[in-house]
Fold:
Amino acid sequence: MSANDKYWCAFSRLTKTGAFFVNTVYNYFGSIKLAWHAEAYDLWKIEGLQKKQIEAFLNERKNINPEECIEYLEKRSIGFIHPEHEKYPFLLRHIDNPPTGLFVLGDLSSCNLDRTLAVVGSRKASENSKNILRNIISGFCGTDICIVSGLAEGIDTAAHKAAIENGLKTIAVIGGGFDKLYPKSNIDLFNKIINDSGAVLTEYWPDVDAISWHFPVRNRIVSGLAKGVIVAEAALKSGAMITAKLALEQGKELMCMPGLISNPNTQGIYKLIKNGAGIITSTQDILDLLNWTIIPRTKSNDPSDKIKELTTEERLVAECLQKDSLTVDEIILKTNLNINDLMVILTKLEINGFIEQINGEKYISVI
Structure:
């Protein structure tokens, strides 16, 4: 532990000032220790700081003991890194307003920060999009590629789970403190990541709530950690679109996964594609856009190859379900198969991993 850790930690304990304030005072004084102990009259001289920021800092500082801050984290085995720390992610050093402190649970050192891929998208993503994403990520199975996302419901959850299922490391960046995990339904996934699949990061003290404005602020870290950013589903006004904008500003490769044009959550996708974002429909598309090379798997992961293994009628049903989730009655209308033949086909396709049943009513392709 360096002598300056406690001051960076103390600044990260503040709740009414953000990274901009800390970066500004640090750059002005050239020392985090001097910045922490700055007198009011010195702070007033700093261009860009607002009166309310300075007053908030001075009021909060009275009740914060730097030594106690670092001791608290050590007792709880919570890691802490800052811009002067050797393990601070190098990609974050080059974004606007980089986080001045990151709390860490898990093993960040096990993640290859030179092969990072961020995945963002709708919390209410369609099963079709989540399954396509899982299939694309499965193409990285067993490699050192690291998946970065935000541990939210929908696309984020699908991305983290797909990474874990395929032996990849994953980094989750959350919008609140570790004691205030959101959503609570992802507690098992949270524990899985920190125990053996990567790391969870946040710039918020453990007891800070995950309030709404934290999430767009958090997004700059998600995109900042990555070499490329995949947008899987996004409405025109959404957090995923905010992340896409940040990714472009940070000079990251922006990639979009196309979906049904009738889905409102693809409107943002097609806007990004029209503006020049890359289109991905396979693992190879990502590798080509990022100029990455991986050792190919012995078993083909191309959905078209799997479809070729089926009979004509099985292929008809599988292709039908690749477009959307359907009930048995809807499949009959589209294929003209009788109910008995269809049930045999559905059973075979499900056993062999081509489709799965969702909500006890509909079927969806998983390839």
